[in-house]
Design goal:
Layout (H helix, E strand, L loop, with lengths): L1 H29 L3 H9 L6 H13 L3 H8 L5 H13 L3 H13 L6 H12 L6 H14 L4 H11 L6 H14 L3 H14 L3 H14 L5 H12 L3 H14 L4 H13 L3 H13 L5 H13 L3 H14 L7 H24 L11 H15 L6 H17 L3 H12 L8 H13 L3 H14 L4 H14 L7 H11 L9 H17 L3 H14 L4 H11 L2
Helix pairs in contact: 1-2, 1-3, 2-3, 3-4, 3-5, 4-5, 5-6, 5-7, 6-7, 7-8, 7-9, 8-9, 9-10, 9-11, 10-11, 11-12, 11-13, 12-13, 13-14, 14-15, 15-16, 15-17, 16-17, 17-18, 18-19, 19-20, 21-22, 22-23, 23-24, 23-25, 24-25, 25-26, 25-27, 26-27, 27-28, 28-29
């Protein structure tokens, strides 16, 4: 009798360990540690349909759809049918996928909540399905099984796919916490939801609760890294992504994310090195060429940037392109065009007109083409992109383009233009010799910001540029208006005063007005006693 009890006890412990091992594999899948999940579940898939299902899902997570399909083809169990539906969604065959899922649900008996759950999961965790249908299936499942935390998390995830589903998602995540058993996952979801709602302290608290609930869950670290990345705090983004890598399977996607944050943190050489290592190992994804292109450009290797960005464009579909791809392409071809222009300038005599080669024109056309492809959703986003482009073109001494982007910023309807927006719109037009538009910019600046004395100064300077011989009185009067301007927050700089005094002196000299010419010439000398222009004017009138 003791021997029988021992055998039964040994079998029970063995079954418990077996179940724990399958549960551990499922948990690793939920933590997106797909390689670890695959390794755990592979030895159990032959005898356990649930283990087989999560093994197939792990292969999907590893981007191996052929292997996933092979796993799901083992038999016609509803788990495998749901797996095949996920593959169909990924292959953009939503009608076929839904037919399979409806077949699972139609065969569900009164207490079979799992069939409803896995069918709904196929919609929730892929794209292209009917989310409303998934919600109704989850709710039917919850009528039959009310004590399953994972089911509430999945229902919350489905609500998150709806534009106004955040409140219902939170309710279900909190219910999952109340039930327990998957608290680390639930707190991770709550943190993500708070972050989307821009409640950053609540998000941080939830992420820390997720870490405490299970220190081995890598997801809070990844989500924190993304949150800090979006906020532009790359120091903490790097700290968290590196902690995530230490706890994750270090998949290709994980390493790409690490390289992406390294790039945004300005660690260009390291970001490029990480991507090139992955490419050399054969883990080629089109996205990698994007980061290599970006980092090559930032390091000054424009040819490598062009080569890798072209590889990215060739290996990706157009719906994968983002604004930054077009922006970098425009920057790359601007640099290449300007290199050709510099070479041409070096081969002509000073003062000769520089011919535009067909290659340079081709590059300039590409710049305009890529700039035209940039799609911007809101005025705040537009302002950031316009400023980035304006600063780039300013550095390239393409002042007309820089001015045009600042004009775009000023004209945004939903964003209040700042004083510097008007200022740079005018200044870069001035340097581009677009004097009429420069004057328009500074006049509008004065209207919008009447306490800004620099707007008056630049109006005078633009008018002086239109009348360099100081024959007319318009620029002179503008300079005198600026000289008379008083504001406790504004100071006339010595350099600006020198420019104004010299022009006004020149005007009065041209009009043979001795008194005023000497008056302003002496003001020049107060700033620079050795000023040759002022001394010549004074000498001229003293001889009269």
């Amino acid at each position: 009798m003791k021997k029988i009890i021992a055998v039964i006890t040994t079998a029970a412990v063995s079954m418990q360990l077996y179940a724990q091992s399958v549960d551990e594999g499922i948990k690793m899948y939920q933590y997106e540690k797909f390689e670890t999940a695959k390794n755990i579940l592979s030895s159990h898939a032959e005898k356990n349909d649930e283990a087989n299902y999560y093994l197939g899902l792990s292969y999907i997570g590893l981007h191996d759809l052929n292997k996933a399909n092979e796993v799901f083809s083992k038999n016609d169990h509803y788990y495998n049918v749901a797996g095949k539906a996920r593959i169909l969604y990924l292959q953009n065959k939503p009608e076929e996928a839904q037919t399979l899922l409806e077949g699972i649900v139609d065969k569900a008996k009164k207490r079979e909540w799992e069939k409803l759950s896995v069918a709904a999961d196929a919609i929730t965790y892929t794209e292209g399905g009917n989310v409303a249908l998934a919600l109704s299936w989850y709710m039917s499942a919850l009528e039959r099984q009310t004590k399953n935390a994972d089911l509430y998390i999945s229902l919350g995830d489905a609500y998150m796919k709806l534009a106004s589903g955040g409140g219902n998602a939170m309710t279900n995540y909190e219910k999952a916490v109340e039930l327990g058993g998957s608290n680390s996952l639930a707190y991770s979801r709550i943190g993500r939801l708070w972050y989307v709602a821009q409640q950053y302290s609540d998000a941080l608290n939830a992420y820390n609760q997720a870490k405490d609930a299970d220190p081995e869950n890598p997801l809070p670290y990844r989500d924190l890294a993304k949150a800090y990345q979006k906020a532009g705090n790359y120091k903490y983004a790097l700290e968290n992504i590196e902690e995530y890598l230490a706890k994750s399977d270090k998949s290709v996607d994980d390493k790409i994310e690490h390289a992406n944050i390294l790039y945004e943190a300005g660690e260009f050489a390291t970001a490029k090195e990480k991507m090139e290592e992955l490419i050399a190992e054969g883990h080629v994804r089109p996205y990698m060429y994007r980061i290599v292109a970006y980092t090559s450009f930032e390091e000054g290797d424009v040819k490598a940037a062009e080569r890798n960005l072209n590889l990215f464009f060739e290996k990706s579909s157009e719906n994968e392109y983002i604004n930054n791809d077009y922006i970098y392409a425009a920057k790359i071809y601007t640099k290449l065009a300007n290199e050709l222009k510099s070479e041409a300038q070096a081969n002509v005599e000073e003062g000769e007109e520089v011919p535009v080669s067909s290659e340079e024109k081709k590059y300039r056309d590409k710049v305009d083409n890529y700039l035209s492809k940039i799609e911007l959703e809101n005025d705040n986003q537009k302002a950031d992109i316009y400023k980035e482009l304006a600063d780039f073109f300013k550095d390239e001494k393409e002042y007309a383009k820089a001015a045009a982007y600042y004009k775009n910023i000023v004209e945004l309807e939903e964003r209040e233009a700042k004083v510097l927006d008007y200022y740079w719109w005018g200044v870069w037009n001035f340097y581009a010799q677009n004097l009429d538009e420069a004057l328009e910019a500074f006049e509008k600046m004065s209207e919008k910001f009447p306490d800004e004395g620099s707007a008056l100064y630049w109006q005078a300077r633009v008018k002086a540029a239109k009348d360099p011989e100081a024959k007319g009185k318009e620029a002179m009067e503008s300079y005198k208006k600026w000289l008379a301007f008083e504001n406790e927050n504004y100071t006339h700089s010595e350099q600006e005063l020198m420019t104004a005094y010299q022009y006004v002196t020149f005007y009065y000299y041209n009009h043979d007005d001795k008194e005023n010419a000497l008056k302003y010439a002496n003001k020049v000398k107060e700033l620079d006693s050795e000023n040759s222009f002022a001394n010549q004017i004074i000498k001229y009138f003293q001889q009269q």
